[in-house]
């Protein structure tokens, strides 16, 4: 089968299209014919092998050479003991281990997969899983009138965080590069901050919720931007800061009833179904930046690595049999 192969960490040049043996559905797995796969910030990290958690799947080189965690496709075979899906079912979801999706076929346990709603294209469905589940968890508890700040809002996941926060009635401030401001307003931000011009953490006592997709400030610094009772959720960012928030977060704002913590987003079919229901109902819409054919996966990664994408980059895979 045709597959994108990444045999080492580095720049998008390490990405090549090659041939690999077609996987088989082992006991407890389904074999999916992939129709589309989308890229996230985590794919950019998994390409570079940085931060350190991007090397959990192989210290020196990726143990599983095929990148890509979010897929949509058709079940073509099921292994023994799988009863919930059958050949012909259209499914989508995040792959366990965050790899394997950029290929014509992938074998995976079905527990993370959901049935693709009939009205949703494979391309749109592939854009949902990781970004949708992050946005769903990151906006739990947001109330009408809350002031929400989304840091790193202009990449793969931010638009859905903004959209869900707006749906819940929040006033949303989105932070990213200055040249993404118009895009951020278009997807619903009430206010934008260019991180080159202003440090949002200097705004004392302003936010009920900060969702940080690119955390690089200490827990003591970020808590100052919160209102009493507010919460800072670190979703991604520097490994050193991740550890600092894990260790010091619980005490950083305790006197002022502020919560500073890492948001661990589980890979979850239930969350995927819940956020997809909101998308199908038209409450929020995933933003697709650009669609590439499988043969141009290296260009898709180059766009992601340069930070030129506004929303999701999707790679379409056409069936060859
Ligand atoms: N917590 C969990 O359980 C969990 C689960 C899955 C994924 N994640 C993590 O979620 C994170 C991000 O999600 P994503 O897919 O939306 O990432 P993304 O596509 O990389 O988007 C990040 C955005 O932040 C911008 N940015 C860079 N430096 C910034 C700064 N100093 N201030 C403000 N914005 C800045 C980037 O701009 P440029 O592109 O121009 O650099 C980009 O637009 C990843 O780190 C991933 O590992 C966490």
UniProtKB/TrEMBL annotation:
Residues 10-315 form the Enoyl reductase (ER) domain. Transmembrane segments: none annotated. This is NAD(P)-dependent alcohol dehydrogenase. InterPro entries: ADH-like_N, ER, GroES-like_sf, NAD(P)-bd_dom_sf, YIM1/Zinc_Alcohol_DH_Fams. It comes from Glycomyces endophyticus.
